[in-house]
Amino acid sequence: MQQESQKDIQDHLRDSLQDSLQHIPKTDKLLNALNAELKMVNPSLLKRITLEFLDAYRQELLEGGVLLDFSTCVKRIVATYQNATQKSLKPLINATGIVVHTNLGRSIFSEEILEEIKPILTQYNNLEYNLQKGSRGERYIHLQGQFKALLGAEDVLVVNNNAAAVFLILNTFAKGKEVIVSRGELIEIGGSFRIPRVMEDSGAILHEVGTTNKTHFKDYQEAISENSAMLFKAHKSNYAIEGFSEEVGFNELVKLARKYNLIDYYDLGSGYFSVLDSVFTGYEPSLETISALNPSLVSFSGDKLIGGAQAGIIFGKKALIDKLKQNQLLRMLRVDKFTIAALEATLSAYLKGNIKVIPTAQMLLRDKESLHALAQELAAQIPPNFNPQIIATKSYSGGGAMPSHYLESFGVAIFAKDLSVLKLDETKLEQHFRRYGIIARLENSALILDMRTLFKSDFTRIVESLKALL
């Protein structure tokens, strides 16, 4: 009797399971409902997602899961489809006061620049075509004239970022040979990019000189040997050595390199044109100042202080640039038409003195009076429940430049004590802003919107997000 009872139970469970499986919607019926629910669908993607859902649903039922009604099945598939087709990159509002913010995409483009390069991107172009000769041309030629006009440089080469520029230069000229560098400049920047590791991977042999805080001219001079190929100077991105310290200027390294027939190379990290001298003089050398030294090679980033596209820009002696072009690595590191077109438009703006179309330059050059006026305008639009206060703030250039010096700015602050009535604190407000794509900073129990990196067009979303809390 007990065996029969167990058999009855098993039969019942099997019948119940079969009944559940029969309730699984048919694929065609689901697809018809989904096509009515969704517009502009990718049929093959929708079918694959639907079949994957049905397989997972069937497995859940086999494991004792609950039945779903038809509309719930449709909603789950729609949610999965929308998630799969949703773009991950989103526009954000930068209220941090950091102009070249690596996490937020570094430099931004103006509508004017994008409109200028739009014909290049939407039509065929002469990227590698010589119109005069009617034959294959070189993609790097498009930037040569502008760099010669701006810097007096003999030649220029552009690769996909400054890390690639460093690697290419070391691999081309110092493979199996010594590169002399100050111990105080053996830097690590974002993404664990370390100068010693880059040298090792490029095939160059690192020769450290000096100490962490002090390196003298004689340290370089005494390190030169028959196996020396290069005197290398690296910008100390994101930090500064102050107090009892000393370093050798690049101008002295250029002279020393010439004396011993070596290559002098400066990895500038961020480079800027002299139009921004009022911001950086005394802290960073301009590209014009470095170029006037007639260096062998210099490299810097295109999407930092000059406000262009991501690129590693190399300028210097034509003979050396020609050798870089012969390195097979260049094929893997080269840039596309968008980068060249965007850089060309950016450099053209500098040549014409039209820096109004370069947002990075605009933000860096904003004076205190205009920043205060912007803060007043934003504060007047914020609901009084939040008691917005205009305060003096410290903003930063970012991108590794001027790490120990701030730019005076103004911001609108909302203090924690004024949020308690709304049952909020500054942390919850910051999280709320992020849901609206607004990135602000927390400081001294307040949420601060720094005006240096904000535009009037950003105010509407900021105000709407606050009104939503009310």
Automatic annotation (TrEMBL):
EC number(s) recorded for this UniProt protein: 2.9.1.1
Instruction: Report if keyword Plastid is assigned.
Output: no
Q: Part of which pathway?
A: Aminoacyl-tRNA biosynthesis; selenocysteinyl-tRNA(Sec) biosynthesis; selenocysteinyl-tRNA(Sec) from L-seryl-tRNA(Sec) (bacterial route): step 1/1
Q: Which reactions appear under catalytic activity for this entry?
A: L-seryl-tRNA(Sec) + selenophosphate + H(+) = L-selenocysteinyl-tRNA(Sec) + phosphate
Molecular-function GO terms, alphabetical: L-seryl-tRNA(Sec) selenium transferase activity
Q: Which Pfam families match?
A: SelA
- Where on the chain is N6-(pyridoxal phosphate)lysine found, per UniProt? K304
Tell me the superkingdom of the source: Bacteria
Q: Which Gene3D superfamilies does this entry report, sorted A to Z? A: 3.90.1150.180, Type I PLP-dependent aspartate aminotransferase-like (Major domain) (3.40.640.10)
Keyword Zinc appears in the UniProt entry: no
Name the cofactor(s) required for activity, per the record. Answer: pyridoxal 5'-phosphate
Subcellular location per UniProt equals: Cytoplasm
Which InterPro entries does this one have?
A: PyrdxlP-dep_Trfase, PyrdxlP-dep_Trfase_major, SelA-like, SelA_trans
Q: Report keywords, A-Z.
A: Cytoplasm, Protein biosynthesis, Pyridoxal phosphate, Selenium, Transferase
Q: What is the protein's known function?
A: Converts seryl-tRNA(Sec) to selenocysteinyl-tRNA(Sec) required for selenoprotein biosynthesis.
Stored HAMAP family: SelA
| Annotated family | Belongs to the SelA family.
The name of this protein is L-seryl-tRNA(Sec) selenium transferase
Q: Which organism is it from?
A: Helicobacter turcicus
Q: Which gene encodes it?
A: selA
